[in-house]
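notes to self, project folder thing:

trying the whole complex as one job this time. last attempt i did each chain seperately and stitching them together was a nightmare. two parts in total, labels are on each line so i dont mix them up again. if this works i'll redo the older ones the same way
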Amino acid sequence: MPNPYLPYEAKIIERIQESPTLFTLRLRFTDPVIHKDFRFEPGQFNMLYLYGVGEVPISIVSDPQDEHMLDHTIRTVGRVTRGLAALKEGDRIGVRGPFGRGWPLAHAEQHDVVVVTGGLGCAPVVSVIHYMMRRRERFGLINIVQGVKHSSDFIWKERYDQWRKAPDTEVLVAADAGESLWPWHVGPVTGLFDDLKFDKDRVIIMMCGPEGMMRVVVKYMLAQGVDESAIWLSMERDMHCGIGHCGHCQYGGKFVCRDGPVFCYKEIVDLFGVKGF
Amino acid sequence: MSHSFYYMARDQLQALINELRARGYQCIGPQVRDGAIVYDSLADCTQLPRGISEHQSPGRYVLSENNSQRYFSWANGPQAIKPYVFAPRESLWRCEKDNTGQLRFTDLKPAPGPVAIIGVRACDLAALYIQDKHFLQEEKKDPYYLARRQKLFLVAVNCTHAADTCFCASTGDGPRASYGYDIVLSELDDGFLAHGLSDKGLELIKQLSTSPPTETQLQQADEEIQHAARRQTRRLPSRNLKQALFNNLEHPRWEEVAKRCLACGNCTSVCPTCFCHAEDEEPALDGSGSEYFRQWDSCFTQGHSYIHGITIRSTTAQRYRQWLTHKLGSWHDQYGRSGCVGCGRCITWCPVGIDITEEAAAICGENIDA
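result (full assembly):
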């Protein structure tokens, strides 16, 4: 049995600067067999290892069926991510994964879907949006709601423009603080909710971002009559091992790295929003 | 069961150690070091804590000498057998980077020889069962833990003494060792009753000089175990406390215990079931490589719940609550039982004497058995 702690070497085949603090590493395992056999679901993550510095959990944003791409969009926040940001094409890192449970995509088919992201939490759901757009006919109405702190944090504008053009697809963007020429909503993302179009009995909500934002969305959706079991969220906790051993990501009886990071609201309803867990 | 017990004179314990050593086992056994009974390499019975008593109470542990000829007339010391399977610190792998920037990873999985631990108590066998469940889950087995675990031979000893801080009878985990060992011994004034559970254990006993036990000896051994259970004054309900704890997340007692708790993490270090560990990187100063290691961590530290700028549990009250609700509550969701085996170490080794049974009772209501 392979050692789940041991990374495999991967090469950076492209580095894309998405915004001043966000960048994407497109990776390829140097062992072609490993690369070919690597399978993941949108919402899962890898542990990326920077030589001499350490590991960090990063969600995979590329399409699971696109074997040429293995993309990780990373925000520069700490020691490891600052180091990763300094890498160039051709540099090598370690990768192990994929870990965790992704989005309920099979379950979401034939449903309306609302994807809500806030802050810089968009990376884990970008993969899910791509996934649905490529298989557009399998899903009902799709609403993409993105909130950012400042309009300059908004990345992938072209992608949002593209998504907006897809049939039966609503794209709503809000910035807490906008600048001139910001074409979208200024204010909290919750201000956009009344523009959403979905059938409350046939909808799947997927969200990712600050827990405060997710709490507000949950409250709104429940008030609209959406069932607890139709709401899915990606949680974030400290993770060292990725396989439910190290204990840092415990959330009540759950390990976020193994049982999540995507949870059905129903599974975590007792602790969600309780400070200290 | 009487037919499967063998009586052996006291000197046969050395014979047992010799047999194990002859089979290539490194023997580990209890011995007095720095004022406490700890596990260490054992070659000779004279190293065992013969004629030693311990006195434990919240925040206190003292050894004294008695006139007994017995080797095991004491209750567990600070150290469980946890460190022998889940190492306090170990390197997981090493990475080397060559001139072209290529990375080479080397697995540092240990290849230990066989280890025999002598003197394992019932609570620590229960804890080992729990840690097995944690580290050896079907899908992602921990290869480092597994490598050591597979090499263990366990000689258990039934407890005849209970410390004031012991409460294994109430959690159902002791004082009698009932599973998970190769050989179990019951110590008598002039020797031992031995029982082999595994084939290896049975085979070993047959190499020793034994005789069938008398009815009196069997009764005596049984009576002493029952005595150790009766001596216990502390207790936790063996039922699932999860609901009671999670219904009381805002109980004022969390703040109250936090005023006493130093958040030092002693309880998690001595706890035989706590599994948290941190992973980190140690690059060689000469640039020749970098080692990735893990070491025990504690949910009482500031760093345990830190994530990019946010500390999820910034207060001691939140950390104590995390520990207790996990240990006695959400542990049931994860492993089908409580994470507490009643060893009482967290009570004895807490520098301010916080008592888990007292805190659980205060938070879950006085009548916790109801």
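what i see at first glance: The first helix of chain A runs from residue 32 to 37.
need to look closer tmrw
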